Amino acid sequence: MRPSHHLFVCGSFRANGERQGVCHKKDSMSLLSYLQNEIQDRMLDGVEVSVTGCMNLCTKGPVMIDYPKGHFYRVPNTGALDAILDAIEGGTVAQEFLLSE
Ligand code: FES
Q: What is the CATH topology of the domain spanning 5-97?
C-alpha cells in the first residue's frame, strides 16, 4: 500500500555518492533520525521517510518534500518537523514552513 505521506529529506547526495551540500552540512541526517523516531512515537500509519540526493534547493536547506501532496518544506530544526507532523495528524499544512516558489 502506498503511504499517504512519503517524506523525502534531503541528504545532499551527489551523483557520485558523496554528500556535499547545505542540507548535509546543516545536519539533515540528525533531522532524519528525529523524524523517524517521532513517527514511531506518534504511531503515524501511512507516513514513510526516505533520504534523497540534492534537490537543488540548497539555499533554503535543509529541505523536505511531502509526497504525493507536493508540499516543499524548509526544516531548520526539530521544531519544524514537529509542526509538520502536527499538521499531518490534523489533516492540514504547516504553512509557516512551506517553501515559496
Ligand atoms: S543539498 Fe539539499 S537541496 Fe541541495
A: Glutaredoxin (3.40.30)
Q: Residue 14 C-alpha to ligand 1 middle, in angstroms?
A: 9
Report the chain (101 residues): mean pLDDT per 10 consecutive residues: 92 82 90 95 95 91 95 97 97 94 61
Alpha-helix runs per DSSP H in 7-47 = 22-25, 28-42
Name the phi and psi angles at 72, rounded to 5: -100, 125
Residue of 88, 87, 6 lying closest to 49 (CA atoms):
6
Q: What is the residue extent of each domain of the chain?
A: 5-97
Q: Residue 100: its pLDDT value, please?
A: 77
Between the CA of 25 and the centroid of ligand 1 the distance, in Å, is 10
Per-state percent for the chain, helix, strand, coil, to nearest 5: 40, 25, 35
